[in-house]
Structures are given as structure tokens and as C-alpha cells.
Amino acid sequence: MTETPSVHGWNPDLPLSLQDKLREDLKLALRSKHDALKNTIRQIMSEFFKLTLPVTLEGGKKSTRPKKPDEITNDDIIGIIQGLIKSERIVLEAKKEASSEYLRILESYLPRQASREEIVAWIKANLDLGQYKNRMQAMGAIMKHFGKTADGKLVNQILKDG
Fold first, then answer.
1. 9, 48, 110, 147: which has the fewest Cβ within 10 Å?
2. For residue 40, how many C-alpha atoms fall within 13 Å in the half-sphere facing its CB?
């Protein structure tokens, strides 16, 4: 089966890790000469060196070391992509543009974000907001459950709105 460049992107239901899917899509982009896809994937991968693990050196001094490829998790890469999306949105805002191909490609590698309705339903089913002195204290439990699939700003807004 031959894939076309429009088949790029990732979701957690795929049998591949996000890192493997990026590698596959990069090969696909190189073969099909899809420059925007190739450049976007290379941009994401160029950020991998920033992923580090804490280590304690012989003298007890704390430091960090870069993560090896097999230590990089989907959440690490999703964090990188979210950072790149945030930067691109700032650039687009300054240029007074709504979107770009770069932004669309980046977003195709993020898992589907939980909707406002899904978050509200989970809160009602799983949390007693009365047990918190301040509703914002529930933020940690909510974000722990949803992980990178929930937008922190949206959760914050839901808790403020009550």
C-alpha cells in the first residue's frame, strides 16, 4: 500500500510511538518531496536534544543529561509540539494571519484534545468540588487524568465558571 503525503499525523490509537511515526513520515516526505512536511518534522526532531533527565554526578552534584532516543516518550514529543504551536500562533498573530501549513502539520501530530463537555462530564462523575477549599485545587487531579489531551487554560476556565 502506497501512502500519500496527506496521511501524515498521529494519534494514540496507532500501533506506533509518536517518534516512530515522525521518522516514517519524514521518509515519506523525503520520497514525495513534500517540503513543508519534511521541514516541520525536522523542526520537531531538532528539539529532542532539549529533553533531559536529572542525574547525580560522582561528587553528589546534580546535573542533567540528554535523553537517549529510547527514553523519549510520546508526552515529551507532544510537549515539544505544543511549544512549537504556541510560538507559531504568536508569529501568526503578529502577521495577522489565521493559520499556516506549518501550524496544520504540527497540529496533526497532537492527540485529539478533550472537549469542554468531556472535561465537565469527567469532573461531575469523578470529583466532589466541595472537598476543595478553592476550586482551583482540583486542577491537579483533572490535569493528571487528562494529561496532554486537556488544555490547561480550558480547565482553568471551567473551574472559574463553576
1. 147
2. 26
pLDDT for 153 equals 87
User: Is residue 19 located within the same domain as residue 68?
Assistant: yes
The Cα 13–Cα 112 span in angstroms is: 11
Same domain for 24 and 89, yes or no, is yes
- 9 and 76, same structural domain? yes
Whether residue 54 sits in one domain with residue 126: no
DSSP symbol at 48: G
Q: Where are the alpha helices (DSSP H) in the chain?
A: 18-32, 35-46, 74-95, 101-108, 116-126, 139-146, 152-161
Q: Give how many domains the chain has, as a whole number.
A: 2
Longest dimension (CA), the chain: 57
Name the pTM for this structure. Answer: 0.75
Axis crossing angle, helix 139-146 with helix 116-126, rounded to the nearest 10: 120
pLDDT of residue 92: 95
Domain that holds residue 145: 116-161
